[in-house]
Design a protein that fits this description.
There is one protein chain. Helix 5 packs across helix 7, helix 5 crosses helix 14 and helix 15 packs antiparallel against helix 17. It is elongated and about 115 Å long. 55% of the residues lie in helices and 14% in strands. It folds into 3 domains: 189 residues, 2-Layer Sandwich (Beta Polymerase, domain 2); 145 residues, 3-Layer(aba) Sandwich (Rossmann fold), CATH 3.40.50; 58 residues, no CATH class. The chain contains 17 helices and 10 strands.
Length: 412
């Protein structure tokens, strides 16, 4: 195999809106269906190995093939991936799909797994997703020797970047920052926390609350079924949102995020649930627009954290991470050079794998066929010398080309 046979077809947030990337994913979470589509792709395009990387802002197909992917082949490829891909996406496919080949493809996957090419620079989630996608390919025998080598050195490269830069420091996730604020407050782990809303954001909040051991959580939501799993994971009580005004058990903190376009926590409602408690209350409002009325903040003793404050901090932290990208790219350049040498070494070893047997076969033919009669005419001592000389030459003929080839690789 040549390095140029390594290819990636990828669509990401850089070429398409995040909500439209799903069109280029395999439209199934069933492992057997995913494998079936990938096996069909392998057969159709003469692909030796393939790995499918699926994230919220990227769809990448990593594979080994001699096939060259022009626009028509890209269309055929993604028709197999998604039968319902819109005609407009197929017509304009060259605007959405990036094709990487050879060392450019290796460089791309190194950057992706090190989160330098991510929507959020420095987030390690993509590293985990890459490793899981390789494990899937390995489990279902979709991968081979090359993707094994690539995974090994991609993991090394990503770890090298995270260990030698600060690119993963300073959280940029709004939820992570909110929880950081919560943990830096005076609230104890047994603080009474009202979690209002059970959508995706607050489900993530719930995971953090469970992780850090907050034990007294009460959930309010418009749909109790949606809050059920979250409540079970936190061992929390759950109430319908319209019962909030009759809640009389008090609270120390509120975390709120709903789809409401109007303030849910009004001044009157807040006064009602406060239950005449006088201590300062901690409030995190992750809603857009805000779900806590401004009068609540101005009229009561609160430590209020709003989405705008968190976003400003997230932007600042993201800027910090981006300054680390220059150093990270230099580190990846080192790993690219190392990978090229390892790949050439591997290909050389494969190419020279049969050299010892070939040389041994030549020696045997010379001794037992070509010069057989002449050797028989020699004195026993001379025959022994000839055999000794041939054995010596066999070893040298194997060792010399191996040594020269390895030295040449290091100079490339």
């Amino acid at each position: 195999m040549e390095l140029k046979e390594f290819q990636i077809l990828s669509v990401s947030h850089q070429s398409l809106e995040v909500e439209d990337i799903g069109q280029f994913l395999i439209p199934s979470s069933d492992a057997n269906e995913i494998v079936s589509r990938l096996e069909r792709i392998k057969k159709e395009f003469d692909i030796d190995e393939i790995q499918y990387l699926n994230t919220c802002n990227r769809a990448s197909y990593i594979f080994v093939s001699k096939t060259t992917f022009d626009d028509q082949k890209k269309r055929s490829f993604f028709r197999i991936i998604n039968n319902d891909l819109p005609a407009s996406a197929l017509i304009n496919i060259n605007n959405y799909i990036n094709v990487y080949t050879g060392i450019e493809a290796v460089n791309h996957i190194f950057n992706v797994s090190s989160s330098l090419d991510s929507l959020v620079v420095g987030e390690r989630e993509i590293f985990r997703q890459f490793r899981e996608s390789y494990a899937f390919a390995l489990k279902f025998k979709l991968s081979g020797d090359f993707l094994r080598l690539l995974e090994k050195y991609t993991v090394q490269a990503a770890k090298y970047v995270y260990a030698n830069t600060k690119i993963g420091e300073k959280p940029v996730s709004i939820v992570s920052l909110a929880i950081q604020k919560l943990r830096n407050s005076d609230l104890q782990l047994d603080a009474r926390i009202l979690l209002i809303g059970a959508g995706e954001t607050n489900r993530l909040v719930g995971k953090f609350l469970k992780k850090y051991g907050y034990s007294k959580v009460t959930i309010f939501n418009r749909t109790l079924d949606n809050a059920k799993n979250l409540a079970e994971s936190l061992n929390a009580q759950t109430f319908h949102l319209n019962k909030l005004d009759s809640y009389k058990q008090g609270f120390d903190g509120i975390i709120i995020c709903t789809g409401s376009t109007q303030a849910i926590i009004t001044k009157d409602l807040y006064h009602q649930i406060l239950q005449k408690e006088t201590e300062q209350k901690f409030i995190i409002d992750l809603s857009v627009p805000r779900n806590v009325d401004e009068e609540v903040v101005s009229s009561f003793d609160t430590n209020y954290i709003g989405i705008s404050q968190l976003k400003d901090l997230a932007d600042k932290n993201l800027s910090f991470r981006k300054t680390e990208m220059v150093g990270a790219k230099l580190l990846l350049d080192e790993k690219i050079v190392a990978f090229k040498e390892v790949f050439k070494q591997r290909e050389l070893e494969k190419a020279l794998r049969n050299v010892p047997n070939e040389i041994k076969s030549i020696k045997t033919r010379a001794m037992e066929q070509v010069f057989k009669d002449k050797i028989k005419q020699l004195e026993p001592s001379n025959q022994a010398l000839i055999i000794e000389m041939m054995d010596y030459m066999e070893k040298k003929c194997i060792a010399v080309p191996m040594k020269i080839a390895k030295e040449n690789i290091r100079q490339l």
